[in-house]
Design goal:
- InterPro entries: N2O_reductase_N (IPR011045).
- The structure is a single chain.
- The relative contact order is 0.10.
- Strand 6 and strand 7 form a beta hairpin.
- This protein has one domain: Methanol Dehydrogenase, Chain A (8 Propeller), CATH 2.140.10.30.
- The strands form five sheets. The chain has a four-stranded antiparallel β-sheet with strand order 1-2-3-4, with no helix packed on it. It has a four-stranded antiparallel β-sheet with strand order 5-6-7-8, with no helix packed on it. Strands 9-10-11-12 form a four-stranded antiparallel β-sheet, with no helix packed on it.
- The chain is globular and about 50 Å long.
- It is built from no helices and 19 strands.
- Helix content is 0%, strand content 45%.
- By secondary structure, it is an all-beta fold.
């Protein structure tokens, strides 16, 4: 019987990618129970796999450690696969990317123990959230892999499930962000979303449309689709209150 868990499938052209973890090979946990307030740390590893539909070839791309919330997700820019390797509890987390054309893996140490919820801007820049071990993430930052520079996008942003379009747009529940090639950030409050008892907005991966779940009188309707129109957003250079 297969013991592996397969999570977070997605397609890029004619190849499917996923994370595969073997639940029979759990490692000894390092942190204390108190250390696990916001995430389970140091408990097991996973493999990033790919499968080419045309050729039928399966490939193991990389092995990463601590494959669980918030780092059980793969994200993608137009030319690269992005993910987090949390490594051991005592080590810094790494941001990694895999180049679809060259098959090369690059790793970046931002000197942070916990990172998560990547939002790629392009092939060289990615937004991310920092963690403390006892609190939910707050503050979205931008990392440039060429200059190794970190820029604050919004120190108060707490929507780590914000959507992105792979070309500089990030849509959170509070503010929309537009980041150009020079790193200039614009803000918009045109598209916001509420989280209440009868409404849920979801689009974890690159934005093409927005999936809405509604409920009324105990009946839930899934997968209502709202078309995303980026031209409707009105931008300002100042961070909105």
């Amino acid at each position: 019987m297969r013991k592996n868990i397969l999570i977070h499938f997605f397609f890029n052209e004619d190849t499917v990618y996923w994370i595969e973890s073997d639940v029979t090979k759990q490692q000894t946990e390092t942190g204390t129970g108190e250390d696990k307030d916001t995430m389970i740390v140091g408990n097991y590893t996973g493999e990033i796999q790919s499968y080419h539909i045309g050729s039928g070839k399966q490939q193991m791309i990389d092995t990463i450690q601590t494959v669980n919330y918030p780092n059980n997700e793969l994200t993608v820019s137009k030319g690269k696969l992005w993910y987090i390797d949390n490594r051991a509890f005592s080590e810094n987390a790494l941001i990694k990317n895999y180049d679809f054309d060259t098959n090369r893996i690059a790793a970046y140490d931002l000197k942070e123990q916990f990172l998560g919820h990547l939002k790629p801007i392009d092939n060289d820049r990615v937004a991310f959230f920092k963690y403390t071990i006892h609190a939910a993430p707050i503050g979205m930052y931008l990392y440039n892999t060429n200059s190794r520079k970190i820029t604050v996008v919004n120190a108060q942003e707490n929507d780590n499930r914000a959507s992105y379009d792979r070309a500089g747009r990030i849509i959170s529940s509070h503010i929309s962000y537009d980041i150009d090639e020079e790193g200039k950030i614009k803000f918009s409050d045109t598209l916001q979303r509420e989280f209440n008892d009868n409404f849920y907005f979801s689009s974890v991966g690159p934005i093409s449309s927005l999936s809405i779940t509604t409920s009324s009188k105990g009946t839930t309707d899934f997968n209502s689709i709202v078309e995303f129109n980026p031209d409707a957003l009105k931008w300002t250079d100042k961070l909105l209150p």
